[in-house]
Amino acid sequence: MHHLRMDEIQVRCVEHFPISTSRPELIKAFRMVVDYLSITKVTCDGWLDGSFHPSEYSDQWVVVQGERLIAADTDAHNVFAIARAKGIEVPFWYT
User: Fold this and answer.
1) Pairing mode, if any, of strands 61-65 and 68-73?
2) Would you place residue 64 in the very low, low, confident or very high pLDDT band (cuts 50, 70, 90)?
3) Which secondary-structure segment (H or E) carries 9?
4) Cβ(93)–Cβ(76) below 8 Å
5) Which residues are CB-contacts of 52 (< 8 A; sequence separation ≥ 6)?
6) CA angle in degrees (0–180, nearest 5) for 17-23-25
7) Is there a contact between 76 and 46 (Cβ–Cβ < 8 Å)?
8) Average per-residue pLDDT for the chain
């Protein structure tokens, strides 16, 4: 596990993939989620991992609980809202 600042995530996950059209949008959504969590004073760990999930979830935000899929969508806000509605107070998100 690496503890990274947002600018380091930007370099590793976006700038190293210059032809990707989805990564800039994903980092933008990720920043919005992190900002929301910061404003609401929620403390949590986020896990970004592009190889962890099956290819059917490529470029999506995914929330799992154990081995159960809670939500998957390209819209981070939808995934976060679904997870919260299903009782997950602080969802981890995977991209």
Assistant:
1) antiparallel
2) confident
3) helix 6-10
4) yes
5) 94
6) 150
7) no
8) 77
The radius of gyration of the chain's CA atoms, rounded to the nearest angstrom, is 13
Return contacts of 11-20, CB within 8 angstroms, 24+ apart. Answer: 13/48, 13/50, 13/95
**pTM (two decimals):** 0.51
Which of 94, 18, 24, 21 lies closest to 60 in space, CA to CA? 94
Neighbouring C-beta atoms of residue 30, cutoff 10 Å:
21
pLDDT score at 95: 47
Residue that the structure tokens 């899929």 belong to: 69
Structure tokens at 23: 């990564």
Q: At what angle do helices 76-85 and 23-39 cross, to 10 degrees?
A: 40
